[in-house]
Design a protein that fits this description.
It is a single chain. The chain is an alpha/beta fold and 380 residues long. It has three domains: 85 residues, no CATH class; 185 residues, Rossmann fold (3-Layer(aba) Sandwich); 55 residues, Winged helix-like DNA-binding domain superfamily/Winged helix DNA-binding domain (Arc Repressor Mutant, subunit A, Orthogonal Bundle). It is 43% helix and 13% strand. The strands form two sheets. Strands 1-2-6-5-4-3-7-8-9 form a nine-stranded mixed β-sheet, sandwiched between helices. The protein has a three-stranded antiparallel β-sheet with strand order 10-12-11.
């Protein structure tokens, strides 16, 4: 069993007061940063006299009384002991390991304290956030796979929110490509939500990690997830939106990224597709750069490729060498919707079964598509 933190040391005492300060009702990230600019340490805030507290906080009696009685300090020390026992690293915003991108100009609302687990370097030279709808389509999954597979060997840390859909795909595809990936949580590190991602989260601790601003025991609260998104947006050099509905949560992350002066890129989708409307609107409104292939990201950020071999691109555009109209129709459908059964392809292309079967065979022989078990076809 791990020994508790020694709160007699100045570093631990400072950290306990900083956590305690964030527990004072009415003090948020912005005001805490202002206070820590005004006073050398958080402990100095707790040592202010009644008249000084009133001068700083005015008529906010709850704030003054909470600081005066130090009721939050015991909870802060409890959290540090929990962190020690469960190998959680507690980062103050002035620590060397704290993500420096969160301290850039315009990020005044980012946390002063982060709780982290895992092996990832949160100050990696290249960080990309990949986000999207929880109701990801096969198209979204396929695009996420194609994009992240092209990150292999490029030294990119992939950040997302460990939610259903595109987030889960981003983390899974990163692990498959041998990349570090970090999940930013909207709750404490004593749980994983959704619970179906527990095994994924465990794998991420070995190749990446988990980050949160919330203490253990924090209940699941829907309002915490939009707040979580600001960390995703600020931690990354760019945010990629793969799929989003017209009012999807991924758009919150995109807007926050723009507010932090980060690049935003969006994947275009088919006309009328519910979970592409948000992306198409970002592009149409000049709020996001068009992402058609992985090179678009590198070009936007001015990054040079680290890999020596030229990677095959995402191939969202139609290949020029496909002349047969049925084959072209099939490729368009599979690009837009992802893997489909033969009957689905027949229905969507409005061609006869013999025409579709012949075209699929031709595409297979040309290594354009692959037949999976159950007569499901996907593009290669």
């Amino acid at each position: 069993m791990a020994l508790p933190y020694d709160f007699k040391t100045k570093a631990m005492r400072d950290l306990s007061y900083e956590i305690a300060l964030m527990l004072v009702p009415g003090i948020g990230c912005r005001s805490a940063r202002i206070l820590l600019d005004l006073y050398p340490t958080a402990e100095d805030v707790y040592k202010l006299s009644d008249s000084e507290l009133k001068q700083v906080f005015g008529d906010h009696r709850t704030v003054i009384e909470t600081i005066r009685d130090k009721s939050t300090l015991a909870r802060a020390e409890e959290e540090l002991n929990y962190a020690e026992k469960h190998h959680i690293k507690v980062l103050h915003f002035k620590d060397d390991d704290y993500p420096k991108r969160l301290n850039r100009a315009g990020c005044e609302d980012c946390p002063i304290i982060l709780y982290t687990m895992g092996t990832a370097n949160l100050n990696a030279s290249r960080v990309v956030a990949v986000v999207g709808t929880r109701r990801a389509t096969s198209y979204g999954h396929e695009v996420t796979h194609r994009l992240i597979s092209k990150f292999k060997g490029e030294g990119i840390l992939v950040v997302s929110g460990l939610a259903y859909g595109i987030d889960t795909a981003a983390h899974s595809e990163s692990l498959a490509a041998g990349l570090d990936t970090v999940g930013v949580l909207g709750h404490g590190l004593d749980r994983i939500y959704p619970s179906q991602n527990r095994n994924l989260a465990k794998q991420m601790l070995e190749r990446g990690g988990l980050v949160t601003e919330y203490m253990h025991g924090t209940a699941i609260n829907p309002s915490y997830f939009p707040a979580r998104n600001r960390i995703i947006a600020a931690m990354a050099d760019a945010t990629v939106v793969v799929e989003a509905s017209e009012r999807g949560g991924a758009l919150i992350t995109a807007n926050m990224a723009m507010g932090y002066h980060r690049d935003v890129l969006a994947v275009p989708g088919p006309w009328g597709a519910t979970y592409s409307v948000g992306c198409n609107n970002l592009i149409a409104g000049n709020k996001a750069a068009l992402l058609r292939k992985a090179d678009d990201l590198f070009d936007t950020l001015g990054w040079e490729r680290l890999t020596t071999t030229e990677a095959k691109q995402m191939e969202l555009p139609m290949p020029d060498d496909i002349k047969n109209p049925v084959e072209r129709a099939i490729v368009e459908i599979l690009q837009a919707e992802g893997p489909l059964e033969t009957d689905q392809i027949v229905a969507k292309t409005r061609r006869t079964l013999p025409e579709v079967a012949s075209a699929l065979l031709s595409l297979e022989l040309a290594d354009r598509c692959k037949c999976l078990p159950g007569k499901i076809y996907k593009l290669i």
